[in-house]
């Protein structure tokens, strides 16, 4: 049985998964920076890129799921900062373990609160998490009095290694693999696609729309808290200004990866590629000494161009 | 767009010849020919996937044709977009409204063409124009209400008036009565007749043979991308000619097959006792047995939909009780499904299809918890299930199990949704207008599948406003008028159109429906 009728270049372009396009884009970026800089394509630098995107990637996976479900979590950056401060504050007066555990518990609790507001009260997730974005940052500054809190003896997450691979990179890979598998092959993941594409139909087919979205917010909360711990471990200090603006990079990576903010469309692999593109761009532009102002402009332009190209791809195939 | 464009006013004359079109490498139109003149109504019939929609999209400039010619007023028309078609006076009234629901009727009528002086909208003129336009065709709609708050029928009228205000000379109506009650449909026919008298050309797409007599001057039938019956005066045709053209040689034999009642009488699985659902359903009681088809027959808007929704836990029962195998029925769809109820909504697009997902996923979605092993869905398992049902239900999905559901024809979409509950082994199947917008062949297949499920012990509750469907299903029939059962025909009772129409019309005068 032939499962796909492909007989013209138009169909072929339209049927190609967005991941191929992103892959091509990433390869082109790498080729460009390699040609412009001797340092770019070295083991050391590639390792740097991986290290720089690990946190972004850990946040991008749950964010992708949320976006596919038709929601968004803009509070992740602020929550990461709050998590670090909260952990450091508790550790100062107690034990490290308590601090880490309580920070993660806080992530779960805040994720649950976000989820409850969105699902049971029906407040738009953009509004809820925009509120959280401001509240959590404020809380972090309040607890820390606006000061950075130094912390010793918490280095493994940020600089530890397992068989030569940095711990945070391993965690990033693990998160992507688990999330990618879950979204592709599990009832949970497919339910998220289903409810994102048509919540009413999903509900009538017996999918619990609210419970699934609630769980996604919890996942996002935990991931943000965890990201805060990694950042704190890297710096050996918790800063109330950590992860400033990170939520926008996360959403950018997710959208770059082909997710639709209207829900129903997107992939974890795509988002991971989006993360790599952003990381490569940041790293490469710095290496070829482009000023940071121009880097901002370049990042924005790449986002718009990539999403626009994807629309062109769909239009060529006659879809809208 | 602007008023200064050369106005073309006289009656239009449109002719299509040799129109071809392919999607995904598959040719769906094999040289379509059609013609229509101002002052006549050409009804266009055909199964889903026959090429009607594609043809009108080409005629309205939405798709380019790959071959063939369109003449408008004797001149070859090069339609590069909807705008070109609009300029020639060709307008389509789609089933889905193209209006701005939050804006008023007056503003919607002027959408994109607000009367303004130096950028300042002249609301008094906008309102006056709107009132005049509505008055011209004799409808009474408040121009200051938001369009979204109007009923389907009125919204449709607003769309038609909008087209007329832009000098439409050919109106293409795509199944305009599919969501209208009989009274509303009759009012629409009056409007169509008066437009025809004014010299407007009308192409009227429909599935309902009964409507032809009321409005069609000529009838054309498409089948599988060809013209099966070129536009022929209606008076020269019999109903049999039209059906034969629609179903082709293969379908004629099975189309009118009479169902033989060999169903066993099983246990009572569903009991309704004095059920009220808000103001929509009043004091309804009946029993449904396993292995039985129960039909709730009533006009659209008579409470049958609300009743079906209540059985599925979508609506609150405000009086009396619904019980499933002796236990009070659950109050959410998820729990209803868990207790063995399946529900097919009349609004397939909005409440049935998981757009963007593949056919196989759409078919299996309700069974995922069962199919999965420790939460993991193996794609090959889904494919196997889909392949089984796709041959059982004769689902035509050229792209296979991963073909996106919205790219299937209406009939195939509906089969997938029915398959969803067959695969789930639903003990009680609640089907609301299961063959709405579905072609004759798929319809026969759907009836056959309902019967197969029922013969295996499923209880089917079918809500229908289609007399032929009620007769065809031959189950126990409850006739519902204004939220109450007014008459019941036991299974095997002699049913005829006349008997049913009479029953449904019985108290209609007394209780407004």
In brief:
The complex is a heterodimer of chains A (320) and B (513). With 320 residues, chain A is mainly alpha-helical.
Q: Can you give a write-up of this model?
A:
The complex is a heterodimer of chains A (320) and B (513). Chain A is mainly α. Chain A contains 14 helices and 4 strands. Chain A has helices spanning 9-15, 18-36, 43-68, 76-93, 96-119, 125-144, 156-159, 167-185, 187-197, 199-204, 209-235, 246-256, 268-287, 292-316; strands at 149-150, 161-162, 165-166, 237-238. In chain A, a hairpin with a 2-residue loop joins strand 2 (161-162) and strand 3. In chain A, helix 3 runs antiparallel to helix 11. Chain A is globular and about 65 Å long. The two termini of chain A are 28 Å apart. The model of chain A is unreliable at 1-7 (pLDDT under 50). With 513 residues, chain B is α/β, with parallel strands linked by helices. Chain B contains 18 helices and 22 strands. In chain B, helix 15 (410-423) packs parallel to helix 16. The longest helix of chain B has 17 residues, at 239-255. The relative contact order of chain B is 0.11. Residues 1-7, 250-262 and 507-513 of chain B have low confidence and may be disordered. Classes of the chains: A mainly alpha (320), B alpha/beta (513).
Per DSSP E runs of 2 or more residues, the count of β-strands of chain B stands at 22
**Helix and strand composition category of chain B:** alpha/beta
Report the portion of residues of chain B in β strands: 15-25%
Strand order of the largest sheet of chain B: 6-9-10-3-11-12
User: What percent strand of chain A?
Assistant: under 5%
Uncertain segments of chain A are 1-7
Shape of chain A: globular
| Low-confidence runs of chain B | 1-7, 250-262, 507-513
Largest interface: A-B, 31 and 38 residues
**Oligomer, anyone?**
heterodimer
How many distinct helices of chain B?
18
SS element count, helices of chain A: 14
Q: Could you say which overall geometry of chain B the principal axes of the C-alpha atoms support?
A: globular
Question: What is the radius of gyration of chain B?
Answer: 24 Å
